């Protein structure tokens, strides 16, 4: 009966395609192309059985029988009345379309956004303004303080009125070195009410009635609850909400996140804020012409800040990058290379698919605490500066130098464990992974709140994974070690794991630390003696941080395969909160993604990496942990290129299987997580 319906539909649709006007056929063609693009998940111009596992229809669409469908084949199938009868198979979950504007949630709190889209890192012009007492001010005068806070407010906006007591408390309790400016950009607000509001600050804050919106527009304010924090060089260091206590359609007794207070604490300690940009739900302001940037684009007034935000963590003297970019001459000397890697999208190193873009301002909402990606405006400005002659500009516009701690980034460790003997590194070629075991000789279990791995020679250490082995001297097999997960990590640009109060990792009594070392010879023979520093938690934690791996040790990648797919799943035996992901493949790794299928059958993509690069073993850390339930299933899918078109491929003629060395392959999706205290004895990494 089903086959008969398909045949009838094919005949009817085929006849219809011959009779309808050309315009309607063009519309049908567009629909075919749209459906093809939906099925072509890896965007390689063809659909394979992995992408469309409905064998009943696949054979009908595969007109030449070569095991793949191209867009021209799909078009021919339309003319034969086949494609319109194709439906998404039961095993495929359609991508959610999301709410329409009329269906947007009525309750909305602050959402983190990509800092570069929200003005963070920009120079603000030296704006002049007059306060309620008719006293004149300039931002450059306030910049004598360590930071300047410009907090939008209003005596008529309900959310601004709710936040006024919070601002009063923050001003009252803030330490020295902070200048506070309350900016009211609502022209019709009552002057008497503003004077009453200003009086609550007891002279510790400047209150400005910004009738024309020049000050609010000049710093890029978007709502009447927005806060912009400037450093001494008038660089925007934070732009966002005060906290999350109030928003559209809700109020809570106490905030869960203290965005502004946390940002100020970080800046006063010469650290960048962990969350540098959020939305600030409030009454929306008009968007006048911005005066955030001077007209001329120069190194000192713009480009140096982009490099400081995104590059010099690695590209500086003592950093892990091959050359420095922290001076004008350095950047000019390497401008050609910078232009190439920025245009190709491989620097700064961040390979997650772009998060959702929303709003008139085009902000990118990111769930990641360590999102390194350039905002489109940053990318355009950097490339325009290079193409425009690379003007240096006025040194007085330069940003504050970024400070990097000497010695240990986590502070003085409570314990340090180091290689007993140096590892010799050859000058050229490649080296297989080296494994070094270090004894801890701990007399008791320890809870660890901060971990830092320090390479002995940063010039040759590519990445380090540290595993905890037992006291019996046995080294676990690779599958067991993969499922158990790494304990410490070093990758370029990330050598520390620091957890907030109440979170820690356990280091068992007498444990051995097993270092997996990936060395990359740099032309000079040398030695390496790496070490790890630990800070103990002050008390047993509320949550134990763990790492598990979603592992497939039975991978088999055929010779010449340019888009081979493998997957592994992990069903959660307990509730868990996911803190981050670290995918691990080798030289044939091409792309990967993490998904979760909930108990109700809904599948959601958690992390999509369309371009995987073995050279960057990145940890993608959530701003806010993702809560999952027992019974939810995590899936790690990866694609491999074992063809001769992959220039890193050691041998495209070989069937590739699981192995520790780079000429073998791995299929390993690490997950950093914690479980509720009531279930702390259980682990999600046990093999089902």
Question: Can you describe this structure?
Answer:
With 688 residues, the protein is an alpha+beta fold. It has five domains: 2-85, Recoverin, domain 1 (Orthogonal Bundle); 115-268, Glutaredoxin, CATH 3.40.30.10; 299-397, no CATH class; 415-541, Jelly Rolls, CATH 2.60.120; 545-679, Jelly Rolls (Sandwich), CATH 2.60.120.230. It is built from 14 helices and 34 strands. Strands 14, 17, 20, 21, 24, 25, 28, 31 and 34 form a nine-stranded mixed β-sheet that branches. Strands 7-6-5-8-9 form a five-stranded mixed β-sheet. α2 crosses α4, α10 crosses α13 and α12 (335-344) runs antiparallel to α13 (376-387). The longest helix has 18 residues, at 2-19. The protein is globular, with a radius of gyration of 28 Å. Mean pLDDT is 84; it is low at 1-25, 79-102 and 289-293.
Number of helices: 14
Count the E strands.
34
The CATH topology assignment of the largest domain is Glutaredoxin
How many strands, which pairing sense, and closed or not: the largest β-sheet?
A: 9 strands, mixed
CATH level 1 class label of the largest domain: Alpha Beta
Low-confidence stretches: 1-25, 79-102, 289-293
Distance between the termini: 40 Å
| Second-tier CATH architecture of the largest domain | 3-Layer(aba) Sandwich
Radius of gyration: 28 Å
């Amino acid at each position: 009966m089903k086959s008969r319906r398909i045949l009838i539909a094919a005949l009817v649709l085929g006849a219809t395609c011959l009779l309808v006007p050309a315009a309607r056929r063009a519309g049908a063609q567009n629909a075919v192309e749209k459906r093809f693009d939906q099925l072509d998940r890896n965007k390689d111009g063809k659909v394979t059985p992995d992408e469309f596992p409905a064998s009943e229809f696949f054979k009908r669409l595969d007109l030449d029988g070569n095991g793949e469908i191209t867009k021209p084949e799909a078009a021919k199938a339309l003319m034969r009345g086949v494609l319109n009868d194709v439906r998404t198979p039961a095993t495929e979950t359609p991508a959610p379309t999301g709410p329409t504007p009329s269906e947007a949630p009525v309750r909305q709190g602050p959402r983190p956004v990509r800092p570069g889209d929200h003005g963070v890192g920009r120079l603000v012009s030296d704006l002049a303004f007059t306060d309620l007492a008719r006293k004149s001010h300039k931002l450059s005068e306030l910049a004598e303080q360590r930071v300047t806070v410009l907090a939008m407010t209003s005596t008529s906006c309900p959310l601004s009125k709710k936040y006024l007591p919070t601002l009063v408390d923050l001003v009252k309790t803030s330490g020295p070195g902070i200048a506070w400016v309350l900016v009211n950009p609502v022209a019709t607000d009552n002057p008497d009410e503003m004077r009453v509001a200003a009086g609550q600050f007891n002279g510790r804050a400047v209150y400005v009635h910004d009738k024309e919106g020049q000050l609010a527009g000049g710093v890029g304010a978007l709502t009447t609850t927005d806060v912009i924090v400037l450093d001494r060089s008038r660089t925007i260091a934070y732009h966002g909400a005060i906290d999350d206590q109030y928003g559209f359609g809700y109020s809570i007794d106490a905030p869960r996140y203290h965005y502004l207070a946390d940002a100020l604490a970080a800046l006063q300690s010469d650290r960048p804020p962990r969350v540098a940009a959020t939305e600030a739900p409030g009454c929306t302001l008009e968007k006048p012409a911005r005066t955030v940037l001077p007209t001329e684009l120069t190194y000192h007034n713009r480009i140096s800040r982009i490099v400081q935000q995104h590059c010099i963590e690695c590209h500086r003297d003592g950093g892990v990058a091959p050359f420095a970019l922290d001076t004008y001459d350095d950047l000019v000397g390497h401008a050609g290379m910078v232009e190439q890697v920025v245009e190709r999208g491989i620097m700064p190193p961040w390979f997650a698919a772009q998060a959702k873009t929303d709003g008139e301002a085009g902000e990118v909402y990111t769930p990641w605490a360590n999102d390194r990606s350039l905002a489109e405006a940053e990318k355009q400005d950097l490339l325009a500066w290079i193409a425009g002659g690379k003007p240096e500009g006025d040194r007085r516009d330069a940003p504050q130098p970024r400070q990097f701690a000497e010695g240990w980034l986590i502070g003085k460790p409570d314990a340090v464990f180091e290689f007993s003997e140096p590892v010799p590194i050859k000058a050229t070629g490649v080296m297989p992974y080296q494994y070094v075991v270090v004894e801890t000789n701990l007399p008791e279990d320890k809870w660890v709140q901060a971990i830092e791995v320090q390479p002995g020679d940063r010039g040759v250490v590519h990445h380090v994974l540290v595993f905890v082995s037992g006291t019996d001297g046995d080294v676990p097999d690779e599958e067991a070690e993969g499922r158990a997960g790494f304990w410490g990590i070093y990758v370029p640009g990330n050598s520390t794991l620091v957890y907030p109060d109440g979170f820690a990792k356990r280091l068992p009594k007498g444990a051995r630390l097993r270092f997996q070392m990936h060395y990359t010879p740099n032309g000079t023979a040398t030695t390496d003696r790496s070490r790890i520093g630990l800070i103990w938690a002050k008390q047993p934690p509320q949550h134990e941080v763990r790492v598990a791996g979603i592992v497939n040790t039975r991978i088999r990648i055929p010779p010449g395969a340019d888009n081979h797919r493998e997957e592994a799943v992990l069903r959660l035996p307990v509730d868990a909160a996911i803190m981050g992901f670290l995918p691990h493949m080798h030289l044939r790794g091409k792309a990967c993604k993490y998904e979760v299928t909930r108990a109700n059958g809904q599948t959601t993509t958690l992390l999509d990496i369309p371009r995987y690069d073995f050279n960057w073993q990145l940890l993608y850390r959530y701003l806010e942990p993702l809560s999952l339930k027992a019974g939810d299933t995590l899936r790690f899918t990866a694609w491999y290129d074992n063809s001769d078109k992959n220039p890193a491929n050691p041998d495209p003629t070989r069937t590739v299987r699981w192995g520790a060395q780079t000429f073998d392959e791995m299929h390993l999706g690490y997950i950093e997580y914690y479980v509720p205290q009531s279930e702390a004895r259980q682990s999600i990494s046990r093999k089902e």
